[in-house]
Amino acid sequence: MIRSVLTAINLSLACPAQAEISFEQTDEETLAFVEGNVLGIFYHELGHALIDVMGLPIFGQEEDAADVLSIFLIDAFYEEESAVQLAYDAAFGFLGEADAVEEIAFWDVHGPDMQRYFNTVCLFYGANPEEREDVAADLGLPEERAAYCPDEYDQAAQSWGGVLDEIMDSSGAETFVLGEVTVETDGGRLTKDVVAQEIAALNGEFKLPQTLTVSVIPCGEANAYYDPEAVEIVMCTEFADVLANMAPDF
Q1: pLDDT tens digits, residue range 44-66?
Q2: How many CB atoms lie within 10 A of CB 73?
Q3: What is the pTM of this model?
Q4: CA-to-CA distance for 235 and 44, rounded, in angstroms?
Q5: Residue 239, in any domain of the structure
Q6: 160 near 68, Cβ under 8 Å?
Q7: Which of 73, 81, 156, 200 has the CA that lies 20 to 30 A from 35?
Q8: Is 179 contained in some domain?
Q9: Dihedral, 224, 226, 231, 235 alpha carbons, nearest 10
């Protein structure tokens, strides 16, 4: 891992690996929570990759731009019922991180987790405010913020939507490639399955100007990051166990 390069672009939840969980004995709601957050994390790192590969200008924090892409893709790629569930899972993921943090690191490249929570809820609500009023209310989005959320979504659509239009290609060219895979745990296998399925879907819709590799490997910690030197997203197998422990009581 190239830590000096990755310091500013890895995901905020980097922590020691936890005890392995048997997902065969895990309830369906927790499994869905883990899968949804693995997908959201992958989309976040895809945002970093697109910024690098496409040479995109970023006015503001790159982490914020990657967060926006993650929820934008959830809204764009999934039918309403699935999108709502994924949005809930992503939002609860930030709540879980906020609960795990004893002191807010205001110096960090990521915004505070509660702010990322409300940004996620706002953007998802703003994409379809007429049908998602209940979602906004259920997740505690204040009316003062909700009034601006449709405009925030429009900004996201103008920026990230234009990028996706640029790489739209249904030829099936495989520019998203599954790289090294080392899975020795249930969490690792779940992560691999989610990533492999998403790579296949992306190759059916988009073509990048160069190959982007996605690897699923043990890292010794729960983490995910984009390596610009290798043009590679790394999804650490330990993340799934941490997410399972973080899942809310359903």
Answers
A1: 999 999 999 999 988 767 888 99
A2: 23
A3: 0.82
A4: 11
A5: yes
A6: yes
A7: 156
A8: yes
A9: 10
